[in-house]
Amino acid sequence: MTTQPQTLPLAERASGLVGSVIDSSTSLLASQTHDIVRFAMGSPAAEAVPTQILSEIGAQALGPDAADAFDYAATEGDPALREALLSMLEGTSDATTSDRLTITSGGMQGLDLACKLFVDPGDLVVVESPTYTNGSATALSYQAELLEVPVDHAGLDVDSLESQVEAAGRTPKAIYTVPTFQNPSGASMSLERRHRLLDLARRWGSVVIDDDPYGMLRFAGEPLPTLRELGGGDPLVFSVRTFSKIVAPGLRVGWVDAAPELGQLLINAKQAMDTCTNLPAQRLVAGFLAGGHLEEHLVTQRAEYLRRKVAMQESLTEHFGDIARWTDPEGGFFLWVSFEQPVLTEALFPVALAEGVAYIPGNAFSPSQAFPHDLRLCFASTPPDRIREGVARLRRAVDQLAAQ
Ligand code: PMP
């Protein structure tokens, strides 16, 4: 977090730039020199990033004859990638048409575009509690007022949403949700709640910002239709997607699927922002998709992430069975741990770091700091043996904190 420079003529909206505890952990951990088991960032397993295939694609697509790959390109996205993306989505629940697709710089730019197009200062924006606070921070950067609605094992609590909106006496302009393998809880919104959420959004005329980066990483249970699919092309559903979790986050390539009537506005917004998404990165992703690598890659990843989740749950049972409970996601990257006796997870963090394990404290997922005794663990980035070591370290840190 930064303090605002007092002497500069900053725009009022600069006070809404709240930063990201989640992202700041990347720099914090980069500066540590001792051995740390890293459960903090939501990164894919380093071994799962297909570096060999990507570098082979790069050698061709970005080689000496590929000067055009380093030029400016179409704002809506490189045609090679849009074509490959359309084929990838064909036959999935997110099948779509090219006039709905805009390539973005990761999922974050999709969230920014959604808020840029729909959120005025003072507008009410619903966020989940806990939520992915980089999403709520985007709404705050457009001076939204947030309404935090609880999430339970079946996702966003739509009964509570309805009653909180009634109590607020005004309808939300937007509803921001991560419906599948939510970040941070790992929960997925039930089918019934998905339908009810869309009904409420239609009744209120609210845009649903459907942020679903983990949906393709299901390793257990039955697939659920996405909000995009259930919306059947409803212009109120604005879907944000990314290759960060399924290929590699450093590429910064994602896409939005939005009503065709927004197409030109999205282009205009991007033209006032970054003109075009990074073209070499788009070519790498296009080559990966066109080469038919994604499906096999996902099969391997899903199996490995299941192994890692099970290892983490077994270690939690061994070391935390007496003092905490945790979620049981059917996909994605995260477990959410809630202490039954108060353990202040922000105070625990430096102790855990010294002990050699990192996580994100629960309050980092709550604009109103509602989760002081919870924490998020990413199981995806760490192999099972190291997971077991990290969870044992975490328990030692809890005991040390209690003894202080
Ligand atoms: N939404 C959610 C729920 C996420 O977990 C993330 C990444 N942590 C993003 C959006 C941002 O994705 P990207 O890195 O592609 O910007």
Distance between the termini: 28 Å
The SSE order reads HEHHEHEHEEHEHEHEEHHHEEHEEEH
Strand percent estimate: 5-15%
Average pLDDT, rounded to a whole number, is 96
Give a nutshell description of this structure:
By secondary structure, the chain is an alpha/beta fold. It is built from 13 helices and 14 strands.
Task: Please outline the helices and strands.
Layout: H1 21-30, E1 37-38, H2 51-61, H3 79-89, E2 101-104, H4 106-118, E3 124-129, H5 133-141, E4 145-152, E5 155-156, H6 158-168, E6 174-177, H7 191-204, E7 207-211, H8 227-231, E8 237-242, E9 254-257, H9 263-271, H10 279-290, H11 294-320, E10 324-326, E11 334-339, H12 345-355, E12 357-358, E13 360-361, E14 374-378, H13 384-403
Protein traits:
404 residues; alpha/beta; eight-stranded mixed beta sheet; four-stranded antiparallel beta sheet; 13 helices; 14 strands; binds 4'-deoxy-4'-aminopyridoxal-5'-phosphate; PLP-dependent aminotransferase family protein; PyrdxlP-dep_Trfase; PyrdxlP-dep_Trfase_major
Structure explained in plain terms:
The model has no long low-confidence stretch (mean pLDDT 96). Helix 12 crosses helix 13 (384-403). The protein is built from 13 helices and 14 strands. It is α/β, with parallel strands linked by helices and 404 residues long. 46% of the residues are buried. The structure holds 4'-deoxy-4'-aminopyridoxal-5'-phosphate (PMP). Residues 42, 106-108, 132, 135, 178, 183, 211, 213, 242, 244, 249, 254 line the site of 4'-deoxy-4'-aminopyridoxal-5'-phosphate. 4'-deoxy-4'-aminopyridoxal-5'-phosphate is lined by residues 42, 106-108, 132, 135, 178, 183, 211, 213, 242, 244, 249, 254.
